[in-house]
């Protein structure tokens, strides 16, 4: 199927590239890598985003367009990367739907298999890991810019090669990417080792807000946007937020509660691989991966979050979890 997707891309004239809202390093890295590969063989390629991406990813490139419900694209082919469902495309979904041909490359387990040509590799640590293969099917001369973007996606989706989604293939592909001569340290310095002062202070205060359940095995951080505002930050500045409660000693599962809109909260779940948190998220109409998942909570929010914590306790007690810990 990946070969077919490469073939369709090569046949197209103008390719529109889409990814999930609030794009992370994998979403953006995959998008820019595909864009650069297509441009290198003389195609037009446009990345559509809902809003400006976080400035820390500017090193990948800044050539993209902002799309809303009324944006018309004259692309003859669309490829959606790192996202398997229209609903996660946010405001760019309408633009995407109007494009005659739809292709999709993803690694999320709980997508809706959309597009005429849909390729999903749930074992791939990052979509960028699949994109490595895709760009090499598109061109024999993949540029360093494209490889930098792929490395960024692989690094950020694996917590810099330390999450359980890392497999031998991840390192094989990372090795090939490094062999192209990219400066990986330049990338990791920007992504991991450059922290704003206000953010350091925020992280300390956030740690104090963490609540514990089930003998300290579950940690919950309620982080409304107002709290971030006190430090001059937004959610985009703290994408490692779910790891603050998770990294605490003794914690097996973390719950991060963020504002979504007036009536709902976005909840991110993480685990030190003791339970499948995507199953917990699915119970609340969400989804994701085994060790990282998310869902939206509305209605009686306090009660529903309590129910979610109870579901985790149940999983820890009766699921596959506790005996393996
Ligand atoms: Mn991803």
Please give a structural write-up.
This protein is α/β, with parallel strands linked by helices and 325 residues long. It folds into 2 domains: 2-192, inorganic pyrophosphatase (n-terminal core) (Alpha-Beta Complex), CATH 3.90.1640; 197-324, Diaminopimelate Epimerase, Chain A, domain 1 (Roll), CATH 3.10.310. Helix content is 38%, strand content 20%. It has a 6-stranded parallel sheet with strand order 3-2-1-4-5-6. A hairpin with a 4-residue loop joins strand 7 (211-213) and strand 8. Helix 1 packs across helix 4. The chain is globular and about 60 Å long. It binds manganese (II) ion (MN). Residues 26, 82, 107, 126-127, 157 line the site of manganese (II) ion.
Bound small-molecule species = manganese (II) ion
CATH homologous superfamily (4th level) name of the largest domain = inorganic pyrophosphatase (n-terminal core)
What is the CATH level 1 assignment of the largest domain? Alpha Beta
Q: What would CATH call the architecture of the largest domain? A: Alpha-Beta Complex
Strand content: 15-25%
What is the number of strand segments? Answer: 12
Total count of domains? 2
The CATH topology of the largest domain is what? inorganic pyrophosphatase (n-terminal core)
Tell me the helix content: 25-40%
- In round numbers, the mean pLDDT is 94
Shape: globular
Measured between the Cα atoms of the first and last residue, the distance is 39 Å
Radius of gyration, whole Å: 20 Å
What does the main sheet amount to? Answer: 6 strands, parallel
What would you call the structural class?
alpha/beta
Low-confidence stretches: 321-325
Strand order of the largest sheet: 3-2-1-4-5-6
Helical segment count: 12
Sequence of secondary-structure elements: HEHEEEHEEHHHHHEEHHEEHEEH
């Amino acid at each position: 199927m990946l070969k077919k997707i490469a073939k369709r891309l090569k046949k197209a004239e103008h390719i529109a590239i889409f990814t999930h809202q609030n794009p992370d390093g994998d979403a953006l890295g995959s998008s820019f890598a595909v864009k650069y590969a297509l441009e290198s063989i003389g195609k037009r390629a446009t990345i559509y985003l809902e809003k400006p991406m976080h400035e820390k990813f500017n090193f990948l490139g800044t050539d993209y367009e902002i799309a809303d419900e009324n944006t018309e694209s004259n692309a003859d082919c669309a490829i959606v990367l790192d996202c398997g469902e229209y609903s996660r495309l946010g405001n760019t979904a309408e633009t995407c739907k109007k494009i005659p041909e739809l292709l999709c490359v993803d690694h999320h387990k709980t997508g809706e298999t959309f597009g005429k040509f849909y390729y999903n590799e749930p074992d791939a640590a990052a979509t960028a890991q699949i994109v490595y293969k895709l760009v090499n099917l598109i061109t024999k001369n993949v540029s360093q810019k494209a490889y930098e973007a792929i490395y960024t996606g692989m690094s950020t989706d694996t917590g810099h090669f330390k999450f359980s989604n890392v497999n031998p293939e991840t390192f094989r592909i990372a090795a090939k990417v490094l062999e192209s001569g990219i400066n990986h340290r330049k990338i990791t310095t920007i992504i991991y080792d450059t922290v704003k002062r206000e953010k350091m202070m925020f992280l300390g205060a956030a740690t104090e807000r963490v609540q514990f359940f089930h003998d300290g095995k579950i940690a919950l951080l309620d982080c409304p946007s107002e709290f971030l505002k006190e430090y001059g930050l937004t959610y985009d500045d703290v994408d490692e937020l779910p790891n603050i409660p998770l990294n605490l000693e003794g914690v097996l599962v973390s719950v991060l509660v963020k504002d979504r809109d007036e009536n709902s909260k976005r909840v991110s779940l993480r685990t030190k691989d003791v339970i499948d948190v995507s199953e917990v998220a699915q119970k609340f109409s969400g989804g994701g991966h085994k060790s990282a998942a998310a869902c939206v909570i509305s209605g009686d929010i306090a009660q529903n979050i309590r129910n979610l914590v109870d579901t985790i306790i149940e999983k820890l007690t009766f699921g596959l979890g506790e005996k393996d810990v």
